[in-house]
Amino acid sequence: MPLPTIERDPAVPAVVDTIEHLFGEVWSRGHLTTRDRRLIALGATTMLGRQDLLETQLRGALTNGELTPAQLREIEYFINYYASVENGTAILYVVEKLIAEHPGA
Q: What confidence score (pLDDT) does residue 105 get?
């Protein structure tokens, strides 16, 4: 996975270091595929109720071809039983929004 370009702001070095470590090392380690890591991140962000991060992860999965629209809908259905209806409903809205934005996906 290519590293995102980050401007070094001296006011937020810890944030830059964290992002570089996350995408440069954590996401590129062996044993798990990017898709595996994406599924884990989706579960964690849904459980935490972090709709902002959830949208980022779902958009990445769809854009990078890691998950199809049908698979995203199945995740949305499945996760309702584990992450609560409230958090599951959040993923429903994000999934449908992203699928509408990516009609060819």
A: 63
Amino acid at 80: N
HEC states along the chain? CCCCCCCCCCCCHHHHHHHHHHHHHHCCCCCCCHHHHHHHHHHHHHHHCCHHHHHHHHHHHHHCCCCCHHHHHHHHHHHHHHHHHHHHHHHHHHHHHHHHHCCCC
- What's the mean per-residue pLDDT of the chain? 84
Q: What is the domain partition of the chain in residue ranges?
A: 1-31, 34-101
Average pLDDT over residues 76-83: 90
Asked whether the beta carbons of 95 and 68 are under 8 A apart, the reply is no
Model confidence, pTM = 0.73
